[in-house]
Structure formats: structure tokens, C-alpha cells
Amino acid sequence: MIVVDRIATMQALMRQYRREGKTIGFVPTMGYLHDGHAALIDRAREENDIVVLSIFVNPLQFGPNEDFARYPRDFERDRRIAGQHGVDVLFHPEVDEMYPAPLSVQAVVKARTDVLCGRSRPGHFDGVATVLIKLFNIVMPDRAYFGMKDAQQVAVVAGLIRDFNFPIELVPVPTVRETDGLAKSSRNVYLSPQERKEAPALYEALKAAAAAVDRGERNAEAIRRLVREHIEAHTHAEIDYVEVCSYPDLTPLSALAGTVLIAVAVRFAGARLIDNIMVELPAADRRGE
Ligand code: PAF
């Protein structure tokens, strides 16, 4: 595995791979790798000649009162995991390498940001889009792999790739969970033992919502209420949002139809967690809206 921290070195290496006709799969991360990242790497490994993993905690996507400084970091552990999963190139730039001077041009995400994390974290997706434009131009991948735990990010990145004509196939990968259902997240390490015990209630609530839909519930407000009540009854977390929206355009729904995303975000004292579940309904049901 080659470890690179300079942009120019990375671009020269990537051009060389492209000249050799090799396909490049890219897994962008902020490090502190877990099984969710490993699933992205494994999928990229299956589908490409070269696998590139980036580890960069991107300051632009954190708000002033968010956890940029305390975001977990352990490069040696990450390097080991990357090697074990067959990463060919690990790109690990410093902040000064990525942002040597204040940016003169920055991305603004105009659609799908007035809901979910976009609403509670203003500017977050502008920061994500900006760093991804840079990373896509540095890595020049054929495919880029993103976890569905952040379904809104996947939808935003699909828009970015389409609007800016990046010749990149976006590959969404299902959420990886602990045995008790908690979605794997780098931030889980910050949960207290009590919070860790309570956290699986998020996915239980989402599964209960999906079961209600299976039984015929089509009222989005009833689904929001069900999820909210389950989380309130089983955790001490503060609910940031419970939302039911169409996917991938992320329009909040009153009646369920088509591909529907049921998403939650909560704040425990130790960490803010997100999770979601997708349900498929006949689009024809929209006639009832
Ligand atoms: O999902 C993440 O870890 C980050 O948002 C990403 C895509 C690496 C951009 O910094």
C-alpha cells in the first residue's frame, strides 16, 4: 500500500494508473475506520483494479459548535485496517495541503439541504461538496463508494456528480450494523455505556416504522409519531429530527408513496447519531395524496 500526503504526487500516480488502463475505485472517509468503511473498501476492491482510500477530517463540513477538534483520529490503526482490506493507495493530506489559503470559490448545495442534516447543520453539505470536488479532481476515480447511513449525503453527491459532469459512477453501499442493530459510526466511541445501551432504539424505531408501513400505514405523520415515541420511551437522547421524505429528492411527505426514506438524528450527550430505513411503495399510491 502506498501512503501519499501530497496532492501533486497523488495526481501523478493516478494519471499513471489511467495511462495503464486501470480502473480506480475511491472510498472517501474521515478515518477512524470501522466495518462500515471496510464494506465500502471491500466493494471497491471487488469492482476495480486500484482502490484509493482518503482519510481527511474536512474542517469545512463542521459548524463552529460541532466536533471537528474532537472527531476521533487514529492514523496508525486506520493504515493497518486499510492494508488488511487491500487498499492500494491511502491519501492522507494535512489540512494545509488541502486548504493552503482561504478558498476563492466554494460549492453551495442548493437542493435537498433544507431538510434532515442539511437543516440542522447549515453549511455542512457545502463543505462536503467542496472537499469532494477537490478529492474527485485529485483521485480521478471511475467509481466512488458512499455508505447509505448518510442517505442525504448520497443524494447530494448524486446531484454533484450529475451537475458537474464528473465521469464517476456513484456506488451506494448498505449500512453496516452492530449485532444489536446500532449503525456503525466513528462517533459511537463517544457514547457512554448507558447511551450505548440505549442507542439501538434508533434502529428499533425505524424497523417498527417499516413494519407499520408493511401493515398498511401510509400517513407520514403517524410514522413520524411512532418513531419519535419509541425513541423518547427508550432513550434519554434529544431528538434532532424524525423525517419521512421521498428519495432521492428528499421532499417531506404527508402520504407515503414510491421510494420513501424514514430518517432520524438524535443527540446523546456523547455524540450525535443518524440512521435511516428505506421503504418501497408503489408510485401509484401517490394518487391518494
Ligand atoms: O462521509 C464522510 O465521511 C464525509 O462526509 C466525506 C464524504 C469523506 C467528505 O468529507
TrEMBL record:
<comment type="function">
    <text>Catalyzes the condensation of pantoate with beta-alanine in an ATP-dependent reaction via a pantoyl-adenylate intermediate.</text>
</comment>
<keyword id="KW-0436">Ligase</keyword>
<keyword id="KW-0067">ATP-binding</keyword>
<feature type="active site" description="Proton donor">
    <location>
        <position position="37"/>
    </location>
</feature>
<feature type="binding site">
    <location>
        <begin position="30"/>
        <end position="37"/>
    </location>
    <ligand>
        <name>ATP</name>
    </ligand>
</feature>
<dbReference type="Pfam" id="PF02569">
    <property type="entry name" value="Pantoate_ligase"/>
</dbReference>
<comment type="similarity">
    <text>Belongs to the pantothenate synthetase family.</text>
</comment>
<feature type="binding site">
    <location>
        <position position="61"/>
    </location>
    <ligand>
        <name>(R)-pantoate</name>
    </ligand>
</feature>
<dbReference type="InterPro" id="IPR004821">
    <property type="entry name" value="Cyt_trans-like"/>
</dbReference>
<protein>
    <recommendedName>
        <fullName>Pantothenate synthetase</fullName>
        <ecNumber>6.3.2.1</ecNumber>
    </recommendedName>
</protein>
<keyword id="KW-0963">Cytoplasm</keyword>
<dbReference type="InterPro" id="IPR014729">
    <property type="entry name" value="Rossmann-like_a/b/a_fold"/>
</dbReference>
<keyword id="KW-0566">Pantothenate biosynthesis</keyword>
<feature type="binding site">
    <location>
        <begin position="147"/>
        <end position="150"/>
    </location>
    <ligand>
        <name>ATP</name>
    </ligand>
</feature>
<feature type="binding site">
    <location>
        <position position="176"/>
    </location>
    <ligand>
        <name>ATP</name>
    </ligand>
</feature>
<dbReference type="GO" id="GO:0004592">
    <property type="term" value="F:pantoate-beta-alanine ligase activity"/>
</dbReference>
<dbReference type="InterPro" id="IPR003721">
    <property type="entry name" value="Pantoate_ligase"/>
</dbReference>
<feature type="binding site">
    <location>
        <begin position="184"/>
        <end position="187"/>
    </location>
    <ligand>
        <name>ATP</name>
    </ligand>
</feature>
<comment type="subunit">
    <text>Homodimer.</text>
</comment>
<keyword id="KW-0547">Nucleotide-binding</keyword>
<comment type="pathway">
    <text>Cofactor biosynthesis; (R)-pantothenate biosynthesis; (R)-pantothenate from (R)-pantoate and beta-alanine: step 1/1.</text>
</comment>
<feature type="binding site">
    <location>
        <position position="153"/>
    </location>
    <ligand>
        <name>(R)-pantoate</name>
    </ligand>
</feature>
<dbReference type="GO" id="GO:0005524">
    <property type="term" value="F:ATP binding"/>
</dbReference>
<feature type="binding site">
    <location>
        <position position="61"/>
    </location>
    <ligand>
        <name>beta-alanine</name>
    </ligand>
</feature>
<dbReference type="GO" id="GO:0015940">
    <property type="term" value="P:pantothenate biosynthetic process"/>
</dbReference>
<dbReference type="InterPro" id="IPR042176">
    <property type="entry name" value="Pantoate_ligase_C"/>
</dbReference>
<dbReference type="GO" id="GO:0005829">
    <property type="term" value="C:cytosol"/>
</dbReference>
